[in-house]
């Protein structure tokens, strides 16, 4: 599984202002990501480095513009450094997702998922809500979720809400999952969490499961 199989890696084709916006958005998303922000290895470039590259590119772009030049040696150098860190970051996220068998690493991180040829399923997703169960463990601050397989589903979308839901906007996407069991970690102990899941099929969405609530231990 290559980074080019998972993400649209078109950053080298972006002009400096576009790359600056992308770096800023990616830094914000990765700093707020439940896994990337807490479990990423320190040697891997991330939000702080992206913001640093953003400032450097903005500064050199302003200097090049003042000189009425499309680029300068200094601008090329800071863009090259940013692209190297972007590639390392993206490759790391793909490897973590593969190693942990957890696609949550691949979503809401600033990268655009690469479109795949859609698979046609012989069955439609179920019209009945999935049965979802939650239990604490296997480790402290973790919750194991298990649900019934939907034969028509290509994947499942899991959403999480910390505290009592106040409406649809209370839930946040955790990720698209292939299996019918996952472990959600880095949860705050002695806090209520609500989980719900739905089937994703061939241009179809199943109904949301009934929310399952649990106090994390």
Describe the 3D structure.
The radius of gyration is 20 Å and the shape is elongated. A hairpin with a 6-residue loop joins strand 1 and strand 2 (143-147). It is α+β, with helices and mostly antiparallel strands and 217 residues long. The chain folds into 2 domains: 3-106, no CATH class; 132-215, Immunoglobulins (Immunoglobulin-like, Sandwich). It has 5 helices and 7 strands. The chain has helices at 3-6, 16-32, 36-39, 47-66, 73-100; strands spanning 132-136, 143-147, 155-162, 172-177, 181-184, 192-200, 212-215. Helix 2 runs antiparallel to helix 4 and helix 4 (47-66) packs antiparallel against helix 5.
* Average of the residue pLDDT scores: 92
Helices and strands, in order, run as HHHHHEEEEEEE
Q: What summary fits the major beta sheet?
A: 4 strands, antiparallel
Counted beta strands: 7
Q: How would you describe the oligomerization state of the chains in this entry?
A: single chain
Identify low-pLDDT runs: none
Please state the CA-atom Rg, rounded to the nearest Å: 20 Å
**How many DSSP helices?**
5
User: What percentage of the residues does DSSP assign to strands (E)?
Assistant: 15-25%
Integer count of domains: 2
Strands side by side in the biggest sheet: 4-3-6-7
| Terminal Cα span | 35 Å
Give the structural class: alpha+beta
């Amino acid at each position: 599984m290559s980074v080019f199989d998972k993400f649209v890696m078109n950053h080298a084709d972006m002009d400096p202002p576009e790359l600056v916006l992308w770096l800023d958005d990616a830094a914000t998303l990765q700093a707020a990501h439940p896994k990337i922000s807490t479990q990423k290895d320190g040697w891997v470039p991330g939000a702080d480095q992206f913001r640093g590259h953003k400032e450097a590119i903005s500064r050199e772009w302003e200097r090049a513009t003042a000189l009425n030049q499309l680029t300068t040696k200094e601008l090329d150098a800071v863009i090259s450094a940013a692209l190297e860190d972007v590639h390392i970051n993206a490759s790391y996220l793909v490897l973590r997702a593969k190693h942990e068998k957890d696609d949550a690493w691949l979503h809401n991180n600033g990268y655009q998922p690469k479109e795949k040829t859609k698979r046609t399923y012989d069955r439609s997703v179920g019209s009945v809500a999935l049965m979802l169960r939650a239990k604490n463990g296997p480790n402290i601050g973790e919750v194991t979720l298990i649900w019934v397989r939907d034969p028509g589903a290509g994947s499942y979308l899991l959403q999480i809400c910390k505290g009592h839901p106040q409406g649809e906007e209370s839930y946040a996407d955790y990720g698209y999952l292939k299996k019918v069991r996952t472990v959600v970690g880095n949860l705050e102990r002695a806090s209520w969490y609500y989980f719900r899941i739905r089937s994703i099929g061939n241009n179809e969405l199943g109904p949301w499961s009934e929310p399952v609530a649990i106090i994390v231990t």
